[in-house]
């Protein structure tokens, strides 16, 4: 078989049955007969009970990571970024463990409220918040609103005056840093839609306008560099620039802005050779960048906040598929088709996301086979695992599990080709609970009005 189609980073694994710890939930292991187990439950039993594809979510793994962040970032406000994956049980776990919550749509806000999440620990994001969304946030008393544009600033002032409340706001600053990540998830360089530009002076104008607005209480600044960011260099630059705005505001208005949110975007490992920063490394770096910048600028350090999403939830989820066809293209690779695809994980198509996969229903002693795991959709971009080695005896009916799918897979799931979305099944201590049921064809047909 030709190997010219194989990327340089892809090497044949020593053990095709291995489960690299940095990719899988803490409870993932293989039973004596080789079947993958998560949360004490077998993949074949889960597939038989709940069907495939199925998102399997290790609740204990998620709880442990949330607790770790609360401990490591004990002097920060830690906001779970709900856009990564949000449902009522996730919101309740975050509330129970003392986390705050970041929502960026009316739907996310309503899920949080319906779960009983304390509104005062919610921050509202979004570059185009509607009047209904802002009014709902004001009615429920959300703790922070991140203002993203002058139009929103004016609208929020009107709505706050009508409601007779004075919301606490942060100004989102576009700090002009192009983080080293995919273009679609780099959110702090000039040529994109988020925040007030530092380069043009809009950021300083917005801060001054919010400060003078009687209807609002300006409490600080916000930045967000992007998503899936390895390393901390871009954070060092961003922190310095946002602290310079604080220094300028203090000089001009005699007021020290007490809060700064540094956003999220911390990377996780999708492949075994990925080496993201640890929570302890991230916390130490952000503290040092802040301390150094404030010391040089003569500022008191602010209360810091972060908004981790993927790094909390990504590794807690896996997706289990069933193989439907195996097609060898001589001289290139073998295409392994599964019963899901870009409707349950659009990240490979949208962000060039890279994943790996393993046989989940048995152990194999066969040699490696250069493979591409593809979905069932009528689109050539329907790829689940672009490049990987699977056992050469992979066959129709096998179960295949893809790790690190807890973030942005169910959140971005769609109905392409009129495909119902899979369920989310939480596992813990040998028990399974359906957090989100499988969408049905009746659900899809119920949208038809004629």
TrEMBL record:
Pathway: Amino-acid biosynthesis; L-lysine biosynthesis via DAP pathway; L-lysine from DL-2,6-diaminopimelate: step 1/1. Keywords: Amino-acid biosynthesis, Decarboxylase, Lyase, Lysine biosynthesis, Pyridoxal phosphate. Its EC number is 4.1.1.20. Pyridoxal 5'-phosphate binds at residues 265, 307-310, 408. The active site is at 378 (proton donor). It comes from the Bacteria. Specifically catalyzes the decarboxylation of meso-diaminopimelate (meso-DAP) to L-lysine. This is Diaminopimelate decarboxylase. The gene is lysA.
């Amino acid at each position: 078989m030709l190997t010219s189609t194989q990327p340089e980073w892809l090497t044949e694994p020593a053990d095709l049955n291995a489960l690299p710890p940095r990719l899988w939930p803490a409870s993932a292991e293989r039973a004596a007969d080789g079947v993958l187990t998560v949360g004490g439950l077998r993949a074949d039993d889960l597939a038989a009970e709940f069907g495939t594809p199925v998102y399997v979510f290790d609740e204990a793994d998620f709880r442990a990571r949330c607790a770790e962040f609360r401990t490591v970032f004990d002097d920060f406000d830690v906001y779970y970024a709900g856009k990564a994956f949000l449902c009522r049980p996730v919101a309740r776990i975050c509330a129970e463990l003392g986390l705050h919550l970041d929502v960026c749509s009316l739907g996310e806000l309503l899920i949080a409220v319906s779960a009983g999440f304390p509104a005062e620990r919610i921050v509202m994001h979004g570059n185009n918040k509607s009047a209904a969304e802002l009014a709902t946030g004001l009615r429920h008393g959300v703790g922070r609103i991140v203002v993203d544009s002058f139009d929103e600033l004016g609208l929020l002032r009107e709505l706050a005056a009508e409601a007779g409340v004075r919301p606490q706001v942060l100004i989102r600053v576009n700090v002009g840093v192009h983080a080293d990540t995919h273009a679609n998830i780099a959110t702090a360089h000039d040529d994109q839609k988020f925040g007030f530009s530092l380069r043009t002076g809009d950021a300083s104008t917005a801060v001054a306008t919010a400060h003078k607005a009687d209807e609002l209480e300006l409490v600080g600044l916000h930045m967000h560099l992007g998503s899936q960011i390895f390393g901390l260099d871009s954070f060092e630059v961003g922190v310095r620039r946002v602290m310079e705005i604080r220094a300028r505001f203090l000089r001009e208005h005699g007021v020290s802005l007490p809060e700064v949110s540094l956003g999220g975007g911390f990377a996780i490992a999708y492949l075994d050779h990925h080496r993201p920063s640890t929570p302890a490394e991230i916390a130490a770096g952000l503290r040092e960048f802040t301390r150094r910048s404030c010391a040089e600028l003569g500022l008191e350090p602010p209360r810091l906040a972060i908004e981790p999403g993927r790094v909390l939830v990504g590794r807690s989820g896996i997706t289990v598929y069933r193989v439907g066809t195996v097609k060898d293209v001589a001289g290139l690779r073998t295409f392994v088709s599964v019963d899901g695809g870009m409707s349950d994980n659009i990240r490979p198509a949208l962000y060039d996301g890279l994943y790996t996969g393993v046989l989940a229903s048995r152990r194999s002693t066969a040699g490696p086979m250069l493979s591409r795991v593809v979905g069932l959709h009528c689109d050539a971009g329907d790829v689940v695992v672009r490049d990987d080695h699977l056992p050469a005896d992979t066959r129709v009916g096998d179960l295949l599990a893809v790790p690190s799918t807890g973030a942005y897979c169910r959140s971005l799931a769609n109905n392409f080709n009129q495909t119902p979305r899979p369920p989310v099944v939480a596992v813990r201590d040998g028990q399974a609970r359906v957090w989100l049921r499988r969408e049905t064809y009746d659900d899809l047909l119920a949208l038809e009005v004629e």
